Amino acid sequence: IYCLLSIVYFSFPLHAQDTVKVSTLVGLDFTAEKLYNSGISKFAAKDYNGAITDFNQAISLNPNFYKAFYNRGIAKFELKDINGAVADYTESITLSHDSCDLCYFSRGQAKYSQGRKTEAADDYTKTIQLNPNHAQAYYYRGGILFEIQEYKSSKEDFDNAIKLKPDYAYAFNDRGSAKRQLEDYTGAAAD
């Protein structure tokens, strides 16, 4: 009846950020925007190398284009260039003036894939600070807390994930595992 922790990292699909309009990005060269939007289209078509080429060109025209860095990181992640993805997410965080919750979350996912769990947890925490409604950040941080046997804190993160996403099956299952470790067998069975 009781399941072991079933966290499935990277079970969410990675999505590039939306296209942009010239009017929303003051000072952005139209050519950079066009290349960026082309990169988004190529990413959607799973042409990750083509997307990276377009994002590179957009960045060369506008080196402060944080969304281009972020999406290039997403494409690099898809191509298993994790170090390159982390570097791009970090640059997008800097250029966004520390305001991009998706940048922190994606960097956390990349760091986790490298076994850098403490750093990943820090990025999930920053994601939550910027966006307290980010259910996945609570869930993945809860998974790390479970792994280091901080079951009470883990359960609290799973609680928050479920509160934000009431149909989050993985969070229910993993909260049940945390409850079991806390010897709340009735609560574990209910989850």
Q: What is the H/E order? A: HHHHHHHHHH
Strand content: under 5%
Radius of gyration: 19 Å
- Say how many strands there are: 0
Average residue pLDDT = 88
Structural class: mainly alpha
Helix content: 55-70%
- Summarize the biggest pleated sheet: none
The helix tally amounts to 10
Distance between the termini: 11 Å
Q: What is the global morphology? A: elongated
Uncertain runs: 1-14
Briefly say what this structure is:
The chain is mostly helical and 191 residues long.
Topology (elements, then pairings):
Blueprint lengths: L29 H15 L3 H14 L4 H13 L3 H14 L5 H13 L3 H14 L4 H13 L3 H14 L4 H13 L3 H6 L1
Helix pairs in contact: 1-2, 1-3, 2-3, 3-4, 4-5, 5-6, 6-7, 7-8, 8-9
Describe what you observe in this structure.
By secondary structure, this protein is mainly alpha-helical. The chain has 10 helices and no strands. The protein is elongated, with a radius of gyration of 19 Å. The model is unreliable at about 1-15 (pLDDT under 50).
